[in-house]
Structure formats: structure tokens, C-alpha cells
Amino acid sequence: MKVVAWGLLGAWLVHDAEELVTMAGWVRAHRAELEERFPMVPWERLEVSQAQANVAIGLMGVLVASASAAGARSGGRSPWFQAALAGFGIHGVMHLGQAALVRGYTPGVVTAPLVVLPYSVWAWRRLRAAGVPAAGWSSAVSGLAMLPLALAGVHGAARLVTRAAGKRRAGRERAGRELVGRERERRVSGRWF
């Protein structure tokens, strides 16, 4: 059961590596097309910088690692692990749906059918074969409810973190420019007197 539990983290790492590499650039490159085809979606809120994608994926990694650890400790019986496992499988299906909607590549769609869905099916079968009671529909409902909350939470937190970091960086750069400007004025005024 430890392999099944930690397999969630391993499958997630492979899948999110694809998202990490493609997410920010893909949304930016396809935003005009997406806005035209799906005008009701607030694309300005969904566009992410690479820094925001990095932070969001890192935060999601913490959630997935904690679910994997709970699954390993409980022999796969943890409701948190089973809900995360269900959410991961649902997430894979959502990637296929997104790609069908846009009629092409979307970030994560390559590893969804190659890693996410096969791992999810395998993990549920291994749990069943080992006699681990699956929460069944309650896992699916929990995973379905947890997925948008987790995604919104990590992206919201990532947006706050990257904005705060950007403001600090901008403040340091402005202070540096002011210091250089004052030094330049001092040198210029020193030459003229």
C-alpha cells in the first residue's frame, strides 16, 4: 500500500512537470483565441505568470505529499488519501475535457491519459485487491468538491505571494534607482562647485 500511496505523489510529479513547463506560456499565447471562443470566462483572472505557476504547483505538491503520507500511514484507508486519489483521477478527466473544448493541446493533457488516469485506475484496483474499504461515492464527491477548492486556494495563495514579492522587488529597484540618482546628483553638483 505504500507504493500505491506514494505513487500518487510520483504520478502527480510527472503530471505537474508538464503543467509547470507549459501552463503560463500556453494561456498567454492562446488568450485572444480563448476570449473569443469563451467570452464568459474571466481570462484576465486565469492568466498566470511563470512565478505564480511555480508557487501554485509547489503548494499543490504539499497537499499531494500530505495525502500520500496519510495513505502510506493508513495503508490506503485514509479518507484524505482516498479523496485526493479521486480528485486526481477527476483532474485527469477534466484535462481531456479541456482539450476537447479547445480542440487541441492544453497544459497537462499529454500526461493525463498516460500517467494520471492509468495510475488512478491501478491504485483503486490495488486498494480493492488488498481489501482496503474504499469510501466509494463519498471519495468521489469529496475529491470533486476538494479539487476546485484546492486549485482556487493554491492559485489564490500563489497570486498573493507573487504580488507581494513583485512589490518588494519593485520597491528595492525604485530605491536603487533613487540612490543612483542621488549619487549622480552629488557627483555632478560636486564638479560644478
Strand content: under 5%
Helix content: over 70%
Instruction: Report the oligomer.
Output: single chain
Distance between the termini: 81 Å
Classify the secondary structure makeup into a structural class: mainly alpha
- Rg: 23 Å
Shape: globular
> Which blocks of ≥5 consecutive residues have pLDDT under 50?
none
Number of strands: 0
Number of helices: 6
Query: What order do the helices and strands follow?
Result: HHHHHH
> Quick one: biggest sheet?
none
| Average pLDDT reading | 84
Keywords for this structure?
single chain; 193 residues; mainly alpha; 6 helices
Descriptive account of the structure:
With 193 residues, the protein is mainly α. 85% of the residues lie in helices and 0% in strands. The chain is built from six helices and no strands. The chain has helices at residues 2-37, 43-46, 50-74, 79-102, 111-129, 137-192. The N and C termini lie far apart (81 Å). The mean pLDDT is 84.
Task: Give the structure's gist in a few sentences.
The chain is mainly alpha-helical and 193 residues long.
Strand and helix layout:
Layout: H1 2-37, H2 43-46, H3 50-74, H4 79-102, H5 111-129, H6 137-192
Helix pairs in contact: 1-3, 1-4, 1-5, 3-4, 3-6, 4-5, 4-6
